[in-house]
Amino acid sequence: FWRRSDREAVQGYFATHGIATELHYLEVPDVLWKQRIEESNGAVRQGRASAYLVDEGLLKKFEGMFEPPLAHEVDVLVKPHG
Question: Of all helices (H) and strands (E), which one includes residue 39?
């Protein structure tokens, strides 16, 4: 649910069917997100993971797609320790 419109569509669908929803948002700082991508890329390069490499182009695409949820959208906010 990277885009607000996708979140709204799914919540609307469930609401029309009488199904309650909750949005749990794990707030990850950009520095940590990029660090984990580099760790994943390293594992792929070393043959320890079968995921795909996230190059600079794909990273920019992901960054451009993501719309952080607004405060009123979030039911449970989780922040990393540190």
Answer: helix 30-45
